[in-house]
Structure formats: C-alpha cells, structure tokens
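for the record, two folds in this file. i put them one after another cuz i was lazy. first one right below, seq on top, structure tokens after. the second one comes after a little note so u can tell where it starts
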Amino acid sequence: MRHPCSCSCENPSGAGQPLDGQALRERGARGELLVEREGRLPEPTSLRWWLRESGATAPADLRALDMIEEGPVLDIGCSTGRHLEHLMARGIDAEGIDLLEAAVEQAVLHGCRVRLADLWTFRPTRAYRHLLLMGNNTGLAGRLALLPALLDRLAGLLAPGGSVLMSGRDGRGLDDWTAGGDRPYPGDRRIRHLYAGQAGPWFPWLDLDPDTLAARAADRGFETHVEAGADGRFLATLRARPQE
C-alpha cells in the first residue's frame, strides 16, 4: 500500500511483517486495513483496489496520470503497481520502487517493473522524465524539517525539464490543524496501520498543505502548480526552474 495506504515506512527495520504487508498477503481476509492519524478516527484505505478486486473504487488521483504523455516514469512507493499498469497500458515507459515486499511481489506478478528499494538508497540506472509521489506520499519526508532533503533527492532523479507529480490532502480545514507541543508544524503527524485487531507502531508522517509545499519547493529550485480537488485533496506538479 501507499501510506496512508502506501509504501512500507511502518517497519523500516524490516523486523517482522508490517500490517499492510499482512493485509496484502492475506488479501484482507481478516478485515479492512485502516490508517489512523494520532488524535483522529481511523480511516479505510484502498486495499481492495490495490488487490485488483472487481468493483473496487479507484483513488481520485488515478486520473491525474493522464497528464503524463511520455516516460521514463518512476513511481515512488508504487505498492502493487496499479498506477504503473495505467501508464504501461498507454505505452509509457514506467517503473517503480517500494519497500513493502508483499506489494512488490504483487506488482511483478502483474507484469510491472518494480524493485524492492528505499528512495534514499535507490540507485537508478537513468534519469526520469516524471516522478510520482501519489497517495499523499509527500509524507515520506516524515517532518517538515526534512522536506528540503526529500526535494533535493527528487531533483537528483529528474532529467532536465522533468517534473514531480504529487497528490495530497490539505489538512488546514481539520479541527486538529494547530501547532503546539512537539508539532511546530501542524502537518507533522504520527500515523499507524490497524488490521485484524492489531495496531502497528506509530511512525512520523508529513501532511503538507499546498502553500507550504510551494514555498519550500521554491526554495529548492522548483516551480509548483497546484490543482485543488474535493475534500481538501490536491494535485501538485513540481518542475525544476531552468538554470540561468
């Protein structure tokens, strides 16, 4: 899954199998996979869609992939490869990386080119025309203070003129969107997975509002275009500014 139905940051040590991996391997046989943000009620994930079950509702950000007209594309936190399938069906050169072994196995089984790899240590063999951080995977930074490092890493993977396509959810309309305590930025959160009566460990996750994303991206040499959607969801396209 992507976080919050996402790649496997839940258990970065690799010890044991994270709950999203269990849910994938068992095809959700013991219940729904949920994601819980600290202080908020758990929410369902798109597990059934990632498992390719008939009639499952696709995430709203899937149609954003129609903006991509050429590759190569790298899907970061690609889960079971459904976004890759969408691109490959249109003849676009696309591959992915994910930390969740169960997700990678599913992706490969369905004909996707996916590697079990971490964004920070991944060694690409080429530069990419487009990078995908869908399903709120901007959260991979963990904390706002680490967003510059994430943006620099993305820039290093892009070919000249390339772009990063991100989808997220603007939390500024939520009741708990306030700073305080150990959260100097309201989007610095902790989340965890729930499955089969079990709760996974809490881990840091960054919920970015689009204005903060655009400001921080500008500091790292990106121009940002944001399209707002329903329920606070947004799509952001980041392009590296031409060097003078």
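(here's the note) second protein begins now
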Amino acid sequence: MMNWGRPYVPRTDELLPALLDQVEAGGVSESVWRELWTMLCGEGETLVPGSPAALPRLVALARSETQALEMAGAIVRSAMTDDQGELMFVESADAIAELRELVDRRLRTRPADYIWGFRTLLAIEGQFHWSAALGDFSDDFYAVPCPHCSLNVTIAIGGYGTYSARRDWDAGDVDRRDLRPASVAELDGTGRWMYDLAVRDGQDRLAEGIRYLMGRAECPRCASVFGIADEYAAANLPPLSSVRLERSRTARQTAAQATPVRG
C-alpha cells in the first residue's frame, strides 16, 4: 500500500523520469499525479530532491494540464528554502518565465482558487514572505512587532475588522485602533503591483485588503504609528533570502548578456 504521507520516495532518480513519461503520454490515473505530488512537492509545502530538475518538464505539461501547473507553482513557492531553489531560479529561468505567463493567463479567467495563482506570482517575483503569508482577507491576522516599544501587535484585516490590537489570550484582541489604509496614490513597488493585479481581475476584497496591508497601524501600547508591510517584512524575511534573490537575479542577467565563444 502506498504511503502518501512520506516526505520523500527512495529511488526517486529511477522512479521520477518514468512517472513524468507517463503523464506526458497522457491518460494517467489520479494515483500517478498523487505520487508525483509526494515525490516533488512534499505535500505542496517543501522543496525536495528532484523538484528543480523536474520543473521544466512540469511547465511544459502545464500548458494543458492543470495539475502540472499547480505542482510547478508549489515548487516555485517553496524554492528559496535552500540552495536547490536558488540554483533553480538561475538554471530554469526560461521555464519560470513561461510559468509566470501561464499563471497570469489563468488569473485572468478569475478562477475560484485565485489566491493560489496570486501567491505563485508573488513567489516568482521573489516576494516569498508575502507568498507564504498572504490570504484572501476574509479573516487575515498578522503579528507585527512595534518598532518603537517591541510590543507584538496583532493586525486584523478581514471580516473581524481592520484594526491593530494587543492580543490577550483570555480577553481576545484588546485596545483596538483602526488601521489607516494606504491611498492608491501612495502605493508603489510591490504593493502597487499587487493592488493593480487584483483590480485588473476584479478581486475587490483582495485589492482593498492590500491597501490596508500597505497602510499604517497605531501601536496600542505606545501609540506610535508605523508601516505594517515594512515591519512585517523586516520580521519575517529569512536572513539569506534577499541575498540569495539578488545573487540569482545577477546570475540570470549575466547569463542573458553572455555570448557564446566561437573557436
């Protein structure tokens, strides 16, 4: 009996090419796709050996197979957890560029799982902290340290309200202060890109939530006002991610500019 919960399948180097051959031939059962998920994506959360090498084939399959598109997206979202992902962004730059186009095309159809594609595009753009944390703002909560007094401030954006608060495990969110959303004119960089994408695709709740996320909050202890996104990113961006991303971008640019040496 297959153990679908195992994190990695022994002899993957032997099994993976055969499985990819099967799905490329078409007409495979759901169990084959489940086996690929288990081998390549660690149940959709962890980059495992074999994932980076399989990405170009999955992207090619993704032109017609939704499962392959979702699997390729999961691999990219997990990519910067180790050096495998860093190399993948360099070595599979063309496949990742095509994946971006495929995901963007799907988002334009306004699918029910829109946030999945939105988060995948964020990962492709190197915004791994937002890719991992962003929800659909139905009931999102973020923990952000106040930069002035270090209180762990709860930020709520969604059906429970839009506020900053001090979380008390008995009384709930206390000392609530209304958030101050960024105006559209104030949005720039990643925040503006996220907002424009959501507006383009008619995702009104997502677009409005992004304005609050990119806005400002008041600390319920010291009453200082700070930028939510800046403090969240500073607290949650892995120490090496920005370095790795910049190194990967530099390597891609160098590779694109290089010309073959002719003998």
